[in-house]
Design goal:
The chain is α/β, with parallel strands linked by helices and 351 residues long. It is 43% helix and 13% strand. Strands 3-4-6-7-8-9-10-11 form an 8-stranded parallel barrel, surrounded by 5 helices. α1 crosses α13, α4 packs antiparallel against α17 and α9 packs parallel to α10. Pfam families: Dus.
Length: 351
């Protein structure tokens, strides 16, 4: 047992959900009816999340983020989000991370960076940065685009971000600053705010240190929602791809947070590649599940089951052919609209 003040990590008592799946893969159905269990998930989520008063109305228009698609640089752009929303009506979508400086210094061209179609709701803007003034201004500028939540990146291990940029996952080493940053962000928006982070950085990877980060950020700011990538980050020069593969997953850290911070909401991220695994995590008690590259590389196989299996909604009956037809119509409508042949066919067809 590891102790941190009132926090403890009892690893021996934890059964990871992926082990349950391997033992009995038929246990989790892909088509769960809208029964008491599904309703309870939605109800308990709203009871657990403590948002600003102004933010509750905006967030409650949509079903809660039981399933969300991770923010991925150069992947979760407008085109991909359009395709994803054609497949799933309820999955929460995240933008690529936008640096606060980009938003501030591109005030004359904000539609290019912040614009999206109304159909993409519910949608979360993820921003990154290490200067409070720019974070405040970027959040204020983003208000006109009516995002449903603002997320702060404390998890990106890219050398460009965590190295020379001095933000992303490196900020986990300075929880006091993150708390101040979240206060500044929250003060400049009327929607909920959240943090996406890892479970540790380099040798700062104990459960105690993770608890210290969560406690300080939530104490110093209105942040009540944390997305936890259940791997630590290594900042010794390995690639972002290796940082998604080499550090081991420690789901026990995530589930211990649920117990030790009952007034906060936590979404689990990392190593979850299907709706079956997402449902397994939710049944183990996860407040929400975030899926990354599996949702990009296999959009139909992954997102095609989210609305029915996760949210208990009736099937829309839409076929892959119909989705492709609608996406083609979208592509035809946006080709070259930014000038200089941008976006081009390659960019639109990428998803």
């Amino acid at each position: 047992m590891v102790k941190f003040s009132a926090y403890s990590l009892m690893i021996s008592s934890f059964t990871p959900f992926h082990s349950i799946i391997l033992k009995n893969p038929r246990r989790f159905s892909r088509n769960i009816p809208f029964n008491h269990s599904t309703k309870s998930r939605v109800t308990s989520y709203y009871q657990n999340v403590q948002l600003h008063t102004e933010g509750v109305m905006g967030a409650s228009r949509y079903l809660p983020p039981l399933f969300s698609i991770a923010p991925m640089m150069e992947w979760t752009d407008n085109h991909y989000r359009t395709l994803a929303r054609l497949i799933s009506k309820h999955a929460w979508l995240y933008t690529e991370m936008l640096a606060a400086e980009t938003i501030v210094y591109q005030q004359g061209n904000l539609d290019k960076f912040l614009g999206y179609s109304p159909e993409q709701h519910p949608i979360v803007l993820q921003i990154g940065g290490s200067k409070l003034e720019n974070l405040a201004k970027a959040t204020e500028l983003a208000n006109a685009y009516n995002y449903d939540e603002i997320n702060f990146n404390c998890g990106c291990p890219s050398p460009k971000v965590a190295g020379h940029g001095c933000f992303g996952v490196r900020l986990m080493l300075d929880p006091k600053f993150v708390g101040e940053a979240m206060s500044v962000i929250a003060a400049n928006t009327n929607v909920p705010v959240s943090v996406k982070c890892r479970i540790g950085v380099d040798d700062h990877d104990s459960y105690n240190e993770l608890c210290d980060f969560i406690y300080k950020v939530s104490s110093l700011s209105p942040t009540r929602h944390f997305i936890i990538h259940s791997r630590k980050a290594l900042l010794n020069g390995i690639s972002p791809a290796d940082n998604r593969r080499i550090p081991p997953l420690k789901y026990e850290f995530y589930y211990a947070l649920l117990r030790d911070f009952p007034d906060l909401t936590f979404t689990i991220n990392g190593g979850i590649n299907s709706v079956v695994e997402a449902n397994a995590a939710l049944r183990e008690g996860a407040h929400g599940v975030m899926v990354g590259r599996a949702a990009y590389h296999y959009p139909w196989q992954t997102l095609g089951h989210v609305d029915t299996a996760i949210y208990g909604a009736p099937s829309s009956g839409i076929t892959r052919r119909e989705i492709l037809q609608r996406y083609q119509e979208y592509g035809d409508s946006v080709l070259g609209k930014d000038g200089n042949n941008r976006p081009n066919i390659r960019e639109v067809a990428k998803p």
